[in-house]
Amino acid sequence: MIEVKELRKSFEEVEVLKGINTSFDTGKVNLIIGQSGSGKTVFLKSLLNVYEPSSGSILFDGRDIMKMSPEEKQTLRSEIGTVFQGSALFDSMTVEENISFPLDMFTNLSFREKKRKVLEVIGRVNLQNANKKYPSEISGGMQKRVAIARAIVNNPKYLFCDEPNSGLDPYTSNVIDDLLLEITKEYNTTTIINTHDMNSVMTIGEKILYLRLGIKEWEGDKDILATAKNKHLIDFVYSSELFKQLRDFMLENNQTSLINDKPEDNEIEDSRIPKQK
Ligand SMILES: Nc1ncnc2c1ncn2[C@@H]1O[C@H](COP(=O)(O)OP(=O)(O)OP(=O)(O)O)[C@@H](O)[C@H]1O
């Protein structure tokens, strides 16, 4: 579990994160959504301590990253898997070598043991025929799967992904979403994903955190999204005509699992926002 308390981040005079309080459960897919510039990447990088927060605390299963010694931070890093935008693979390394990288960095495992783990995750993400290829020789979707395999090879407790579906077609995006959901359950990771993909939000969003202008505007799960009353959230999530019609249909028919009987129990509304009639 990751708990975030009063997290603030400023760049010089500009405050980008304005006191965020939230938590992300173990074994769940947590999605961060929000318009461009709302602070999603700064939030993710602050959690990872790539950016040092201006104030607040971030607890990884009770351990405050801001109070950790360099050694403790190094241990925490070995427990974190990351999938960054563009997959961030090493062009000069084969698929197998890319995936082995965290094991080379963080473990003293023997060559044979590393090989065993690498082949295991290659099988897990279905890349058996690509292990000797270079990133430039495989498709974008396969590159994402390599990045996911690399992120999980060292059995992480925490999995961070920054727009894992960017640049992928809808079918391949679904494959990646399904894989991330399955891996979250199998490895029992606390998974946090920045996404612009509303299909991901509707299908794998076990928790959704909606950021707006650096504040937490709303949080809840995919099943209460259709009945959420936060106007900014609705305008953002249902900005596409297709999703708007889907929501109208769901509300009219009241017959989908996306609708929860008691949305108020699970969602936090910003009291400054007038309720929609
Ligand atoms: N290193 C930095 N120095 C100064 N300002 C920054 C820095 N990184 C981000 N910002 C500012 O913080 C704000 C939030 O940026 P961020 O990249 O987190 O947005 P985002 O929600 O991830 O957007 P997108 O969806 O387009 O990736 C922006 O106004 C951006 O200019």
TrEMBL record:
Region (Disordered): 258-277
Pfam families associated with the record: ABC_tran
PROSITE patterns the UniProt entry points to: ABC_TRANSPORTER_1 (PS00211), ABC_TRANSPORTER_2 (PS50893)
Residues in ABC transporter domain copies: 2-238
Annotated protein name in UniProt: Phospholipid/cholesterol/gamma-HCH transport system ATP-binding protein
Family matches, as Gene3D superfamilies: P-loop containing nucleotide triphosphate hydrolases
Keywords (A to Z) from UniProt: ATP-binding, Nucleotide-binding, Transport
InterPro entries: AAA+_ATPase, ABC_transporter-like_ATP-bd, ABC_transporter-like_CS, P-loop_NTPase
Domain of life per record: Bacteria
Transmembrane segments: none
Species name: Epilithonimonas hungarica
Biased composition (Basic and acidic residues): 261-277
A GO term, aspect molecular function: ATP hydrolysis activity
